[in-house]
Amino acid sequence: MATTKSTKQWIALAAMGLGVFMGLLDVTVVNVALPTMVTDFKTTFTDLQWVLNAYTLVYAVSLMIMSKLGDMYGRKKIFLGSLILFVLASAVNGMASNLLILDIGRGVQAIGGSGMMSLSMALVASNFEGRDRGLALGILGSIIGMSSASGPLIGGYLVEHFGWPSIFYVNVPFGIIAVILTVIYVKETPSYGKNQKVDLVGMFLSAVGLFAVIYGLIVKEGHTHWGWLDLRVSGWLLGGVVVLIIFIVAEAHIKEPMVNLQMFKKPHFVGVVIVAFALGAGIYSFNTFLTALMQNYIGYSATQTGVRQLTISIWSLILGPIVGILSARYSKKWMITISLLVGSIGFVLMARAIGPAVTFAGLWPGMVLMGITNGMVNPLLNTAGMEGVQPHEMGMASGLLNVFRQLGTTVGVVGLGLIQDSQYETYLNGHLGHLGMPTAAVDGLKKALVDAGPFSGHTIAFADRVQHAPFAHAFQQVVIRAYDHGMTSLTIAAAVIVLIGAIGAGLLLQRNPKSTEL
What we know:
Distance between the termini: 21 Å
Number of strands: 0
CATH topology of the domain at 1-196: Growth Hormone, Chain: A
CATH superfamily of the domain at 1-196: MFS general substrate transporter like domains
Number of helices: 21
CATH architecture of the domain at 1-196: Up-down Bundle
Order of helices and strands: HHHHHHHHHHHHHHHHHHHHH
Low-confidence stretches: none
CATH class of the domain at 1-196: Mainly Alpha
Strand content: under 5%
Oligomer: single chain
């Protein structure tokens, strides 16, 4: 009987892991399909941006709401409903005949993805006990780490061989398998709040506040030359912060709140949240810029880039189960702290390798250390986040960790992007004027490069009309070095973010906090 029970537990983990993998993969997998979508939909990258933004926004906004519903009415029910919703939306997205349907479908898909992600850790914690729980959470952490990093490889292969709809259709058969396994093998948790009133005010305020903050960051990302005080940016950000402050005040006075604010009075939980934010802002956001470097400047295809980025993602597969076992013996506090320090060293190594002649051979040592950090910290973060949390709040604890990880990723993409843009423009301003070109030509090229941004500068510099100009080679070298200057700066910034995460872990995490058994 014990063997049968153990087998069922691991099959249940496979079902939950499959759902989480699909949900997180769809955050990044669309990036590599955008060039094909531009052609098929006869539109621009700007119009397609909402295919990405719709998922990011709705995903972040829904995390806490789905977590609370799972805690109240049963995590398996909400997880299963989210999984079915995700599969149906994926099928609709694959058949989308226009951008409006695709954008709406991506938003619906994000609701399903957030439900799967926010409840997976709590479900694993309630389906396993003792040492098996640490191992299972470690494996789930591996899946989380691999899913985000695997987007370029999986997406690139599917798009190149089967077209962009395949990145959505592939979710259908795997989703159906996950639904069947979930129904049969995943154990339901108690409906802790079935007699409570749903905190509709808290859900509304949290959704509006998070939406406004993240949308403001997205607006800033798309318009880097708009100042932070520009009302089109600051209006959203300030409004979102005000709503979130009202949310906190309201939660403190509601008898049955959506979020128990007492959780944030525990230094250990605050430390876990800081690590989650640093992981998103430092490591996950950096993948966007690393992919652009490898494709736009080194010249690898999407699939070639994805294969090389296995240098990062493979460590999640290797280390997750090992970390799950080690976490039962050694202090998670110091394992997390040391792992983040290793990651910061990896970023410094990559920063030193970046230059006009950079290749994968120069980047891989730093990428390996970055991958080890991701492979170590994600599983440990899951386990540490569940420690000391009451059983009826495990879903919300999981949701909060994912909110801060996602918020960190969004802040990181915008913040690191602004650092890159600033340093890129500064280098252009200081060097384009020394090429001996007419002033009008310098001004025109500079404007074109700045408007296009670092990602697209290479395309402008190596365009056919520029190639035959007498100053072409010198101009191209300036553009490449300007990109390298910005890329190096943002890589050092990522190292600092991860280092701050390490300091937060070292100061706030507890060595052996008491775990609450279910």
